[in-house]
C-alpha cells in the first residue's frame, strides 16, 4: 500500500470505467487497467483534491479557445517547415 485517502489529505485520483466495451470481459482488474484501458476510459480526474474531469468532461477548459490555439500552433509549424 502506498498511501490512504482520508479527509484533509491531498490526493490524485483517476476513476476508470473498467466495464467499457474495450475492456470486456473484466477478468483481471489490474491487467485491464494496465493493458486494456486507455484515456477514453477515464471518467473522473482529481489532482490534489481538485476535480479536473468529471463524467468524462474536462472542467475549467475553454475548448473553443484551446482548439483555436492548437490550430494556430499547427499552422505556424507548417508555415515554418514550408508545407
Automatic annotation (TrEMBL):
Superkingdom of source: Bacteria
Keyword list, A-Z: Hydrolase
Classification via Gene3D superfamilies: Urease, subunit C, domain 1
One Gene Ontology term of the molecular function aspect: hydrolase activity, acting on carbon-nitrogen (but not peptide) bonds
InterPro entries: Metal-dep_hydrolase_composite
Name this polypeptide is given: Cytosine/adenosine deaminase-related metal-dependent hydrolase
UniProt organism field: Plantactinospora soyae
